[in-house]
Write a structure and sequence with these properties.
By secondary structure, the chain is α/β, with parallel strands linked by helices. 35% of the residues lie in helices and 10% in strands. The chain contains 9 helices and 6 strands. The N and C termini lie far apart (99 Å). Keywords: Chromatin regulator, Hydrolase, Nucleus, Repressor, Transcription, Transcription regulation.
């Protein structure tokens, strides 16, 4: 099939024998689990599907995406459950298709944390000034500390003000530690993903659905997805209890590139959302609470045996 035929972007392979059915099954699976959570049949859910969907646009498949699974499901649930699902929060790692679908809507809030590199990283959009798209991070390698700091100081305050009735996460794991730089190159660990999932569970009375998106190296993809699933199934925990459970962070201070990105985002969003006084300060470094630091750097090394006490010789 030639490039661009049937609205297929040149970066995406299409097989007429299997792709249509697979794409419909993926979209249908996300629709099914989102409906089950919205109706109260289940508390939460994780749609483990392929192909992914968040890059798919209205008239074009791209980025290995054919139907925008999350976007379709959000539209359907708003239509089918108008009495108790009035507002949906979508959290993503930058799906340009989902962003475009809901850019002018007030019944869906789209927040994204993603690598941006000043517009030089795929899909080449999602700058900090794109109101509604979210936190576009710079090229320095970001990890647990940077992402959790963005959640604590920016994502969660906005989400709590929006007060959604349902949360849908486009669960992409391109940023998981173990992906090459051209794919993601970031350093988020499974425990980082688990903690962010726990934070989102505090919204919408726990009505949350994860839908699998990107992630291309099997080991970090499976470990990260498994950690998120464990967080969905686990008990509600305080932030400190969560960190004690997953081991904590090696650092509570985000790197300078992340701080610069956060400052740009806050400056752009402050006319529309309320932030704490400390976040509004020009010198604020977006640090996390000191008690969230890992004890003894995750205690991966065995403790040294104590030295025997020297006794003074006794004369006599």
């Amino acid at each position: 099939m030639s490039c661009g035929e049937r609205g297929i972007c040149c970066d995406t392979t299409y097989n007429p024998a299997g792709t249509p059915n697979a794409a419909r099954m993926a979209a249908g699976s996300v629709i099914e689990i989102v409906g089950a959570v919205a109706s109260g049949k289940v508390a939460n859910g994780f749609a483990i599907v392929r192909p992914l969907g968040h890059h798919a646009e209205q008239n074009q498949a791209m980025g290995f995406c054919y139907f925008n699974n999350v976007g379709i499901a959000a539209n359907i649930v708003l239509k089918n459950y108008p009495n108790h699902i009035k507002k949906i929060l979508i959290v993503d790692c930058h799906g340009n298709g989902t962003q475009d679908m809901f850019y002018d809507r007030d019944d869906v809030l789209y927040l994204s944390l993603h690598r941006w590199d000043n517009g030089n990283f795929y899909p080449y959009s999602g700058s900090p000034s794109d109101l509604g798209s979210g936190v576009g991070l710079e090229s320095d390698a970001m990890g647990d500390t940077e992402y959790v700091a963005a959640f604590k100081h920016i994502v969660m305050p906005i989400a709590m003000q929006y007060n959604p009735d349902l949360v849908i996460v486009s669960a992409g794991f391109d940023a998981a530690e173990g992906h090459d730089d051209y794919i993601g190159g970031y350093k988020i660990t499974p425990r980082g993903y688990a903690f962010m999932t726990q934070m989102l569970k505090t919204l919408a009375n726990g009505k949350i659905v994860l839908a699998l998106e990107g992630g291309y190296v099997l080991e970090p993809l499976s470990a990260s997805a498994g950690a998120c699933l464990s967080a969905l199934l686990g008990p509600e925990l305080s932030p400190l209890e969560q960190y004690q459970l997953i081991g904590g962070l090696n650092s509570v201070k985000p790197n300078s590139a992340a701080v610069s990105s956060f400052q740009k985002v806050v400056a752009t969003l402050k006319p529309y959302w309320k932030f704490s006084e400390e976040v509004m300060r020009d010198d604020f470094r977006f640090s996390l609470p000191s008690e969230w630091r890992a004890i003894n750097s995750l205690s991966t090394r065995p403790k040294r045996a104590p030295k025997p006490k020297r006794r003074m010789p006794v004369e006599g």
